[in-house]
Amino acid sequence: MGKKWMKCGFWSVCFCFIFACVLASPPAMARDEILIGTHNPLSGIGALPGAEQKWAYAQAVADTNNAGGIFLKEEGKKLPVKLITIDDESDPGKAAAAVERLIKRNKVDLLLSGQVGAMGTLPGMITAEKFKKYYHGGIIWPQTFLEHNFKYCTMYFFDPATSGDMPFEVFNSVSEDQRPKRLALFMEDSFDGKTMGDIWASLAKKFGYEVVLRESMGMGAKDFSSQVMKAKAANVDAILSMANTPESVTLLRQLKENKVNIKWYQGFKGTWPNEFWTALGSDAEGVLLDGFWSEDNGYPKSKELGEKFYKDFKYYSVNAGYYYATADVLFQAIAKAGTLDSLKVRQTVMENEWVSANGPVKYNEKAIALFPMSDLQWRNGKHVLLYPLDRAKEKAEVMKPWDQR
Amino acid sequence: MSPRFLLKPKLSYSFLGVVLCFFIVYPLVVDAELSYLVYFLYSTFIYVTLAQGWNLAAGYTGQVSLGQHAFIGIGAYMTAITWRTGWTGYLDPLAMIMSGLGAALVAIAIGVPLLAKLRGDYFALGTLGLGEILRVIAINGGSLTEGTAGISLPSSSYVSMHYYYYIALLIVVIAQGALLWITHSRIGLALVAIREDETAAAANGIAILRYKILAFAVGAFFTGLCGSLNAYYVFHINTTGAFSLNWVIVPILMASLGGAGTIWGPAFGAFILAGVYELANIWMPELHPIFSGSFIVLVALFLPDGLMSYLTGRKDRILQKLPVFHWMFQKA
Question: What's the pTM value of the predicted model, to 2 decimals?
Answer without folding.
Answer: 0.85
